[in-house]
Amino acid sequence: MEKRDIHGVVFDMDGLMFDSERIVKYSWDVAGERMGYGKLGDNIFYTLGFNVDKRKRHFQDTYGEDFPFEQFREEYRKAFWEYEEKNGLPAKKGLHELLDVLAKKNIPMAVATSSSHEYAKNNLQREGIEAYFSAVITGSMVSEAKPSPEIYKKACQALKVSPAHALALEDSYNGIRSAHGAGMITVMIPDLLTDSSPVDELLDGKMESLLAVARWIESC
């Protein structure tokens, strides 16, 4: 990554700030087995970055229009919270270091997540990092989900920064397409998806962790 003039940073949440996508995959396996469909966790690889409506459409397209998505949603949420209550929801490597670096440099931050507002707020509060963010843009606040650029455009508007000088940190292909479409500096931090080749032409960079991003920002 070459040094860039960054005026704002927008974070995805699941799989980027928190190691949650693996728990989602596990909870989908649990829910699928409880409902008699078998393990459904691998569907996450096709729905990363989707909001709930797009995920529902994926499951209905894959398993039939009569797929009981609302029941599935209740079951996987139950499995997710059971896991989280027992094991916690770990922050990704370097999250706190990066937030501190950006705060010291007075670079404003926002979250752009397809998840619900309540879920996002609870995660940020529990980790003690809510105060770092000037804005939290969630799936219910946009009319089009990722890969539409709408959510990232809204985040840049909330930060009052030009997308050309705003850094987007993402782990999913749809999130990368969204941020790139908004005209942002786009960096991938791999999580469940490690192969960046489908989106390499859209990326300004790829780093192994948020800690690597923190060290890069410090050098800028």
UniProtKB/TrEMBL annotation:
Say yes or no: keyword Hydrolase present. yes
Example of a GO MF term: hydrolase activity
Claim: Hydrolase is one of the keywords in the record: yes
Query: What are the UniProt keywords, alphabetically?
Result: Hydrolase
The UniProt entry, under PANTHER family, shows:
2-DEOXYGLUCOSE-6-PHOSPHATE PHOSPHATASE 2, PSEUDOURIDINE-5'-PHOSPHATASE
Q: What is this protein called?
A: HAD family hydrolase
* Lineage of source species: Bacteria, Bacillati, Bacillota, Clostridia, Lachnospirales
